[in-house]
Structures are given as C-alpha cells and as structure tokens.
Design the sequence.
C-alpha cells in the first residue's frame, strides 16, 4: 500500500464520521462507527501492508521506539486532498504476533461548548476557580480528552491565564486567545521526558492552570496534588469509573503510612470529579456522554478526610442542588428521553441489575448478578 492509500483510508474515516481506524494483519481496515466496528470493503491486510502503512506516517523517532520497545504513540494532522475536511489523529503503533498493528483515533479540530457535550452549568463556575484539582475520569474512549479540551477552551476564551498542558501526545491544538497557552508533549526526543518532570518544571513557568493528560503513576499524582495546593487550578485524568472509585484509587496509590495525609490533602484541594462514559445514540447518528459528577462540598470533604468514601454515592444523590448526579441516574434519563437503548445503558451501568429493574428491561448478561453482588458489597463497606 502506498501513502496515497493511507490518505484514502483517513479521508474515509473523516467523511464517515468514524472515531477510530484499525489496521491489523488478517482483516480489512476497520472503522469504529458510532461505537461499532465495521470492515471497509478493501483487501485483507498482509504483514507488508501494515508495515508500509506504519512507515508512511510514523516519524523516525517513533519508528526507532517501535523497533526498540515494540510500540510507539504520536499525533499528526491530516487534510483531505480537496481541503474539504481535516482532523488530527492520535496513533498507537504496536507489535502483536510479530506483526505491525495501528490504531488511529480521530481528534476533531472543532472544540465543543459545555452545552454541546452536556456538561452541567456548575462546570463553568469551577473552571473560574483560582486553585484546586478537577479530575475527569473514565475508560479509554469515553471522551475525556474532548471534555478537557472544552474546559481549556472555555478558560482560554473567558479569562487571562497562563495555561500549561502536558500531554502524550498532544491531541487538540489550542490557539492563544484571552489566555496564553503552552502545550508540552511527553516522550523521548519530545518537549519533556515524563509527566512528573513536566509538572516539576511547570511550577517555575508562572502557570495559572495546568492540565495533566494522564495521572499514571504515584509521582505524577503527588505532583498534581502539590500543584493544586500551591495555588493552581489543575485538571487531570484517571482511567477509573465512578467518583468514589476515583478517590479511593488516588489514596490507594500511596503507601499506607501516607494515606491519612493524602486524605487530608484531597479534602482541601479536590474541587470535583467528573466520571463519564460514551454511548451510541439511538435518536440520531453519533455518540452521547453519560456523566457521574461529584462536587466537593464541606460535607464530602469531611467524608474524604474521615475515610468514609463509601458514603459518597449517597452524598451525590442528595447533592443535586449542586449539580451532582450518579452515572446510573443519568443513564436512566438518557434512556427515558430516547437517546440510548437499554442494552447500552445497562452495559455502562455501575449497578446493572438495579438499573435494569428501574428501566423495566430484561437482563440478558450472564455476569449481571455477580456484578450486582459486588456493587452491593461495595455499598455495605
């Protein structure tokens, strides 16, 4: 396959509105379209095909990293031949069964407003805070990057701030508006070698707002909390589900003898946790995000400090006046408004059997009872 062919594949990805392009040996190119995998009507890919496709778009440093470590990640911009459409792509190249595979995720240039992605109004208020930690969580592909980009864009439009983003790789490119934007890419031979190093350096770069693309290790988590403590607004992401689980995950990342101190720090620095899932729509093409949202009120700060995070779900239920909501409540709202189907809602639910009962839907997943038992055990702790 030639460079021209990869151009056609990317053009098809953009024009069909797909979120991802998969290139694997033994199967034709595959698009993820509205959450579903769909083969393209082309030849089955062979080892030489995926190798040529990889070399056609991967920079030299990425090819070297792939050779040495079996994988590399990078981002690049693409425009169709007639310039009618363009997008950035985040690319993951990896070796499997001795062959080259690629996954290219499309990152739209267009930044969405809070209303367009369905965020509660209080998010705008929280983005105006001068300090604190705001976490956006969810599994891979849940839209965390888009949500964070919308928050950065809101601040950039509305306030004069120095915003530093630390990403691997940079996905959305922001232009200087009312704010000043510094975007640093993590990786060997890139802007900075690690997230933790970028955060250490950021504190000397006169930041107001810091975005940490991924809080993937203890050092980065610790640095993010410290930055929030010292008078900066910090946005971070974790691959966790649910607000309660996110807080527990952060605390459990620390040694046992430090956990009490971290609970105190979190209780004073944490502003909010937004945990999200992305589901295919049934009322139109595209995807819709479902959110669980926690705002750290004095009562919730006290629960964190006193190691009573098992009560957070109940506190979210009673905190609707602050814009809080549980994921399953939002899933039910989306289902009842005809935006998603029952099966997708139950699949993303934290308590599938409970949600199915509220929907009046039949459960057809064999592991549902076990999941519900685990959820019940979590509530009983």
Sequence:
């Amino acid at each position: 396959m030639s460079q021209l062919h990869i151009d056609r594949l990317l053009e098809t990805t953009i024009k069909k509105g797909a979120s991802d392009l998969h290139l694997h040996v033994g199967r034709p190119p595959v698009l993820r379209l509205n959450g579903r995998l769909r083969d393209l009507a082309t030849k089955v890919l062979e080892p030489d095909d995926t190798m040529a496709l990889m070399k056609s778009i991967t920079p030299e440093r990425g090819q070297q990293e792939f050779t040495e470590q079996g994988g590399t990640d990078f981002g690049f911009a693409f425009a169709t031949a007639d310039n009618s459409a363009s997008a950035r792509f985040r690319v993951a190249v990896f070796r499997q069964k001795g062959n080259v595979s690629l996954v290219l995720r499309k990152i739209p240039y267009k930044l969405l407003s809070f209303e367009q992605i369905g965020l509660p109004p209080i998010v705008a208020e929280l983005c105006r805070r001068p300090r604190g930690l705001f976490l956006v969580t969810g599994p891979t592909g849940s839209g965390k990057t888009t949500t964070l980009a919308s928050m950065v864009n809101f601040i950039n439009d509305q306030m004069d701030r120095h915003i530093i983003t630390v990403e691997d790789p940079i996905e959305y490119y922001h232009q200087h508006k009312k704010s000043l934007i510094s975007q640093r890419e993590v990786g060997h031979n890139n802007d900075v070698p690690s997230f933790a190093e970028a955060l250490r350096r950021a504190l000397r770069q006169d930041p107001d707002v810091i975005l940490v693309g991924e809080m993937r290790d203890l050092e980065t988590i610790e640095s993010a909390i410290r930055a929030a403590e010292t008078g900066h607004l910090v946005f971070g992401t974790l691959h966790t589900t649910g607000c309660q689980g996110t807080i527990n995950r952060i605390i459990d990342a620390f040694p046992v003898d430090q956990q009490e101190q971290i609970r105190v720090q979190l209780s004073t620095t944490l502003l909010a946790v937004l945990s999200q899932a992305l589901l295919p729509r049934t009322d139109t093409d595209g995807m819709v995000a479902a959110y669980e949202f926690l705002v750290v009120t004095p009562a919730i700060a006290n629960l964190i400090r006193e190691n009573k995070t098992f009560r957070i779900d109940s506190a979210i239920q009673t905190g609707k006046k602050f814009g809080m909501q549980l994921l399953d409540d939002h899933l039910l709202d989306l289902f009842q408004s005809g935006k998603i189907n029952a099966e997708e809602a139950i699949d993303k639910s934290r308590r599938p059997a409970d949600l199915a009962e509220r929907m009046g839907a039949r459960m057809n997943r064999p592991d549902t009872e076990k999941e519900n038992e685990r959820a019940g055990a979590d509530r009983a702790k």
About this structure: The longest strand covers residues 86-96.
